[in-house]
Amino acid sequence: MDEIDLSELEDQFDEIDTTGDIVVSELDDLTLIRTFHAQKDLLLKLQEVLHPRTQAGRDAHSLYAACKIELDSRITKGKF
C-alpha cells in the first residue's frame, strides 16, 4: 500500500488561528459537564439545535458535539 504524503495538508493547517480553542480532553469532569450543558442551553436559546445558522450556533454546536464525544469516551473507558 502506498504511503500518503500529508505535508501539503499540514501546511494548510498552519494558517488556522487556534486562539481561544478549547481542548475538551483536558477539561476536568465538572467543567466538561458544565460546558456541555452551557452549549446545549445556548443552542436552545438560539433555536439552532438541529440546524445552526449563525457562527455562534455553529461554534456552540461544535463544542457541544466535542463535549458529547469526550463524555461518551470517558464513560466507556470507566473514567467517569
Give a verbal description of the structure.
The chain is mainly alpha-helical and 80 residues long. Helix content is 59%, strand content 0%. It has 3 helices and no strands. α2 (29-46) runs antiparallel to α3. The longest helix is centred in the last third of the chain and has 22 residues, at 55-76. 9% of the residues are buried.
Percent helix, as a range, is 55-70%
Rounded average pLDDT: 86
Number of strands: 0
Q: What percent strand?
A: under 5%
Question: From N to C, what is the helix and strand string?
Answer: HHH
Distance between the termini: 39 Å
By DSSP (H or I, 4+ residues per run), the number of helices equals 3
- What is the approximate shape? extended
Main structural class: mainly alpha
| Rg for CA atoms | 16 Å
Main β-sheet: number of strands, strand sense, barrel status?
A: none
Low-confidence stretches are none
Topology:
Layout (H helix, E strand, L loop, with lengths): L6 H7 L15 H18 L8 H22 L4
What descriptive keywords fit this protein?
single chain, 80 residues, 3 helices
In short:
With 80 residues, this protein is an all-alpha fold. It has three helices and no strands. Helix 2 runs antiparallel to helix 3.
